[in-house]
Amino acid sequence: MKTPFYISCGVSELMGAAMIALDIKMYSTGGLGVFVFPSLIGSDGSLLKLSLRFLLLSLAVFSPSSSNSLYEYQIYNSGGEVAKAEGKADEAAPVPKEIQQEIIASPLIGNIVPLNRVTDQVFASGAMGKGIAIDPTDGVVVAPAKATVNLVFPTGHAIDLTTENGAELLIHIGMDTISFAGKGFKTYVEAGDIGEAGQKLIEFDLATIRDAKLPVITRSL
């Protein structure tokens, strides 16, 4: 996005030069903390005098404001201790579920292809998530891990799973295979089924896909 950035910089410079030429003044919020001092300019254009006045005011209010903050902090803490003493403290937050390592095997027999090399840009760009592509040598899709079946497409060309550790997987067979309307595909599971690793999920006919001049590369995300 370098070109739009350069254009916006050039336009801003021209706009600033025009404002100076037309003697247009603008008020804006200064920085925070000590960085606010350089932004204090009086109506007569003086900077130092106004900054010194503001510095004195800041020092004058520093003591009461800091004391007030300390007082509120003490009240907050003492209130928490009282609540604990009376047994009214909030219950402890639940311990987060321990993240466990999970082995996800290949759902097909075949050759692995980098996802960014498939011709479908939706998958190649990673818009659907990270994963791999497989050029299958066998028309059988198996469960890559113990998982629950979330969805089996009516055409049988894709299936969505969630492993027991929470990883969601989408297995999409071939490209544009939805156009077969189920021809050459056979499913062995339904939504809600729990499959073990290696269990047969879908069978498909490689020859049917190849005869239609469509890629058989399968994506697993």
TrEMBL record:
<dbReference type="GO" id="GO:0009401">
    <property type="term" value="P:phosphoenolpyruvate-dependent sugar phosphotransferase system"/>
</dbReference>
<keyword id="KW-0472">Membrane</keyword>
<dbReference type="GO" id="GO:0016301">
    <property type="term" value="F:kinase activity"/>
</dbReference>
<keyword id="KW-0418">Kinase</keyword>
<keyword id="KW-0812">Transmembrane</keyword>
<keyword id="KW-0762">Sugar transport</keyword>
<keyword id="KW-0598">Phosphotransferase system</keyword>
<dbReference type="Pfam" id="PF00358">
    <property type="entry name" value="PTS_EIIA_1"/>
</dbReference>
<feature type="domain" description="PTS EIIA type-1">
    <location>
        <begin position="120"/>
        <end position="221"/>
    </location>
</feature>
<dbReference type="InterPro" id="IPR001127">
    <property type="entry name" value="PTS_EIIA_1_perm"/>
</dbReference>
<keyword id="KW-1133">Transmembrane helix</keyword>
<dbReference type="InterPro" id="IPR011055">
    <property type="entry name" value="Dup_hybrid_motif"/>
</dbReference>
<keyword id="KW-0813">Transport</keyword>
<protein>
    <submittedName>
        <fullName>Sugar-specific permease, EIIA 1 domain</fullName>
        <ecNumber>2.7.1.-</ecNumber>
    </submittedName>
</protein>
<keyword id="KW-0808">Transferase</keyword>
<dbReference type="GO" id="GO:0005886">
    <property type="term" value="C:plasma membrane"/>
</dbReference>
<dbReference type="GO" id="GO:0005737">
    <property type="term" value="C:cytoplasm"/>
</dbReference>
<dbReference type="InterPro" id="IPR050890">
    <property type="entry name" value="PTS_EIIA_component"/>
</dbReference>
